[in-house]
Amino acid sequence: MQGTVDGFSYGLVTPLVAYLMACLGGALGLRCTTRSMLVTRSWRPGWLALGSAAIGSGIWTMHFIAMMGFSVQESPVNYDMLMTFASLGVAIVMVGIGIFIVGYRGASGTALFTGGTITGLGVASMHYLGMAGMRLNGKLEYNTLTVAASVVIAVAAAIAALWAAGQVRGFLWSVGASLVMGLAVSGMHYTGMAALSVHLHGATSTPAGDSPASLLAPLMIGPLAFLLLAGVVVMFDPLMVMGRPDWSAAEQKPGIPAHTVHPSGRGYMPGPRSRHHAEARTPQNR
Q1: What is the rounded end-to-end Cα distance, in angstroms, of the chain?
Q2: Which residues partner with 142 through β-bridges?
Q3: d(CA 167, CA 162)
Q4: Closest CA to 62 of 214, 239, 153, 189
């Protein structure tokens, strides 16, 4: 017997809130990834780790909020808490691998494709592992082609997002990229849900696991609190908004000579002979 699946039990409320959470996590993660490219290597791992956790938490929160609107008319739906939170770990780890590749190798060529593919597969793995944590009086079945389409969407969205993170530009650039990323992640989620069908068992007992309402409190306290803290870090870092390296501060430090800019646009540091000739041309030495 096929169950009647409804992914919009609360109308447009859950899709809209889920989309906003995906955009928030994406915006914070992309800005942290961009920031990592503007600092020395000693600071880079910290920013990349923060970006990975922000994107992973945002996508996982988006998934769970969207699942709050999921129901099967003939059976209650519960969740295995351990597997549900394991999907959060998978999202952060695999997104982190992709971000670290791009953060150290650059957002172009093989590194971008490899990092984006791993990140996209991490998003898809999080989604389907979270679905595997569902407990109901039935069996979940998937359409293979639709599942493949959802994975392709996830990978394409990840590659585009990491490419955008590699473009060291201003805050509005990252906001626009995060809106597109949120749309793609939400599209991946609901494409995956469209691949789902439920084959019900004859029994009508209450399934094992926790109800969605009982998981709402840890969801709000954990990942959402982290996203709030990450947002505070982003807002109080001026380079995150300006989107350019802090070269001027480094050049004004005592003992570090200022450099001139070569006509080609590259920085030029005069050597001893250049400084000698420059001194010889000063009015005092003429």
Answers
A1: 99
A2: 196
A3: 9
A4: 189
